[in-house]
């Protein structure tokens, strides 16, 4: 089940320096690679690991040519990380097990749902009335697609994903809550990947929309009527409240949150654990995290934060007095 270096370069390109007949048995990180493995160097800060690595071949950028040549075989490419990503796809394809049945016998598909003949539906999936699943889309085990929700082509939904559960819509009345029926659905574009146990709620009146190429990690919550622009990526445990609009080509770090009804522009990057409490209309990298600290120190700092407004007013008053009486 090995792959020749020559076969890898033939399939993926790059400049090989070394024996094209050398057999690669596994893919591995630099630090743990053995002589039968191929690895990659994605950042110059790992140059020391490159020198000490036992990997049979390393994928590197042109700037690392000399360092790689000192230790053995290498493949030269402008973007080693991207090359390695494509290598993982090649490796998986070369080592693929026989395809299971297109639709697992335990899957439950409503007669009024539409599933493309090329789609694959895993064990214990549920596809409800009016739902549509596009070409070459794969639903892993235990995925639920609720009524009238649409999933495009070449999507991958990992185990436990729930598409189209009711959004969290409630109206207060005399100390209790009255449910607002969620009458919209969810529309997911092409080439979207959704991680395990992520939930995307259906819209209240209009649809929740996930555009083409969006990548969602595990355990993410997308509220009702959210709109996520194309090729945006979110890391695990991120949460987006209802009716937020997130632009294209954004990244949202793990456990970050976006409050409802906000707008985030294209090309905005949110650091992990940040909480977005206002709209962001300019591309850039944003962080809103109160640093972790010893609890006693944190409580003192938190108490000080509460006084910042009054401290600012006192400082302005002192500055005004200084200007009036420089002596």
What order do the helices and strands come in, and which of them pair?
Layout: E1 3-4, H1 5-12, E2 15-17, E3 23-24, E4 26-27, E5 37-40, H2 47-52, E6 57-60, H3 65-69, E7 73-76, H4 80-94, E8 108-109, E9 114-115, E10 120-121, E11 126-127, E12 132-133, E13 138-139, E14 144-145, E15 150-151, E16 156-157, E17 162-165, E18 170-173, E19 176-179, E20 186-188, E21 193-194, E22 199-201, E23 208-210, E24 215-216, E25 221-222, E26 227-228, E27 233-234, E28 239-240, E29 245-246, E30 251-252, E31 257-258, E32 263-264, E33 268-270, E34 275-276, E35 284-286, H5 295-306, H6 308-324
Parallel strand pairs: 4-5, 5-6, 6-7, 8-11, 9-12, 10-13, 11-14, 12-15, 13-16, 14-17, 15-20, 16-21, 17-22, 20-23, 21-24, 22-25, 23-26, 24-27, 25-28, 26-29, 27-30, 28-31, 29-32, 30-33, 31-34, 33-35
Antiparallel strand pairs: 1-3, 2-7, 18-19
């Amino acid at each position: 089940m090995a792959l020749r270096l020559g076969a890898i370069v033939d399939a993926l390109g790059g400049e090989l320096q070394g024996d094209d007949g050398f057999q690669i048995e596994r893919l591995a990180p630099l630090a743990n690679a053995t002589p039968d493995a191929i690895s990659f160097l994605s950042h110059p800060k790992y140059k020391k690991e490159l020198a000490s690595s036992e990997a049979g071949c390393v994928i590197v950028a042109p700037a690392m040519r000399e360092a790689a040549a000192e230790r053995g075989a290498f493949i030269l490419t402008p973007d080693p990380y991207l090359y390695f990503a494509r290598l993982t796809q090649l490796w998986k394809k070369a080592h693929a097990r026989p395809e299971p049945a297109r639709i697992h016998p335990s899957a439950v598909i409503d007669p009024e749902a539409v599933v493309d003949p090329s789609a694959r539906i895993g064990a214990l999936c549920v596809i409800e009335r009016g739902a549509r699943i596009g070409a070459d889309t794969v639903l892993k085990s235990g995925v639920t697609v609720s009524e009238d929700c649409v999933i495009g082509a070449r999507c991958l939904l990992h185990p436990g994903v729930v598409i189209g559960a009711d959004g969290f819509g409630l109206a207060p009345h005399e100390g209790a809550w009255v449910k607002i029926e969620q009458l919209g659905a969810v529309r997911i574009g092409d080439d979207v990947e959704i991680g395990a146990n992520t939930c995307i709620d259906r819209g209240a009146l209009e649809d929740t929309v996930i555009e083409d190429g969006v990548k969602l990690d595990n355990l993410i919550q997308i509220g009702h009527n959210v709109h996520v622009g194309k090729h945006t990526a979110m890391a695990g445990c991120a949460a987006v409240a209802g009716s937020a609009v997130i632009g294209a080509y954004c990244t949202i770090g793990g456990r970050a949150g976006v409050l409802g009804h906000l707008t985030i522009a294209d090309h905005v990057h949110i650091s992990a654990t940040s909480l977005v409490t206002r709209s962001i209309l300019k591309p850039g990298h944003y962080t809103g995290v109160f640093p972790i600290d010893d609890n006693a120190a944190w409580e003192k700092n938190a108490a000080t934060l509460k006084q910042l407004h009054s401290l600012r007013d006192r400082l302005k008053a002192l500055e005004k007095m200084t200007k009036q009486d420089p002596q």
